[in-house]
Protein: YycH family protein
Organism: Latilactobacillus fuchuensis
Amino acid sequence: MRFNNFLMRLGLILAIGISLLLSWKIWTNNSHYERQTDSQTTQKTPTRNADHQLADTFLPTQVLWRQTDQSELLYNSKENIVTQLKKTLKKTQIAAFKKVKLNETRYGQQLKTDKTVTLLYPDDVTYGILKEVFSYQGTNRGGIKNNATFNRIQITLGSKTADLWLLNDRTKVGYQAELTGFSKQKIKELVNASDVHLKVEEQFLNHKPLMYVAANQQLAPYSYLVNQQPENYYISSLLNQQNTDSINTKEQGDSAIYTDGTDSEQYKRLTIDHKTGEISFIKYEDVAVPKTTTKQFETSFDALLKTGNSLAGMRYYSHDEKTDTTTFRTYVEGFPVFYQTNFGSVKVQLLPTGQRVDFSNYSLQVPVPAEDHQVTLDSTESVLNQLTQNGFLLEDVDNIQVGYEWTKESDNDQVIDLNPTYFIQYQGTWRSLSALLALKTELTEGS
């Protein structure tokens, strides 16, 4: 009897000891335990972007129509105009290109050619990318190389023929070719079907043509449900998919830092900010930075795909040759979304030691009913006047454009509001008009 009691007590003590040991291991390595549990229910290889092609992300972002000395930004909420123009262009025949170097005056005149439709890129792309986007095969069609850059595809509709111009706002270089089989009737149909006609005018600021919005133009605000993936989703897709035991975890402030590997050629680090949803992924590998801009675009797009986030509405936005960095942004109704992150929606930097990808855990899902009213925009001219009146130097304005400001609703963190406003790139940094003016106020008050 006494021996049985002894065994029972001994068993109870051992059970309590094992329980305490297991609890200690869970408490001291909680993130690792969660990874193992969640990884069983998370797909190791995201498939949501399997059908998304480079041509979808590198489509032009806006369509400009000019007739009788008036330019309009067009958008159709029911039918994607850019996609329709792409289909029309794919049916055409392009003659050999002729390179044309224009001065600023002549370039401005080309932009104001009557009866033209222009597909706009927010920054330079290459002819190599254009061939992928529009499925142009075979030769370079004479007079133009794959690494030639441009940010406008302008189609001039003459009485008998149509001409294709690839124009670069920065270098003022154009490539001209005759188009055969282009449907002018299709252009009329697209213009008439558009439900947004934003009156604009191209004017030069600091030797660069910018799109000046006329007074009293209106845009609609929007609201969207947002999606947020669990952290384990990115751990399994970006770090070691075969062996999560090799992943180390530590908390630092509001962020969790996950690392995999110790070899400098295979080391990976994933940093997730719990508070802002911003994510940074760094991968070290013995791969040289691609020498051509086209290859850099393709490599950056591959990195964008590997994040596993939804790419609906995601478009190429800019490329920095000095840092080998390509930025992608979400577009809504033909306008870019700002403040989804501090650095843009997704920023891919190709490094001599690998690559770095900065992006957001949040992505737009489905629109929800918003207030049924239009927001009236000030003219671009009046915005620039407001800047000068507040002490800003126009020579430091790199760019100015209308976009949507991403703000969370105070009573529902699953819904974000998108409100149209002006964004100014001042001394290299993008800020909304209100944020830029507030910054000036802070500097003045602090002086």
Remarks:
- The first strand starts at residue 62 and ends at 67.
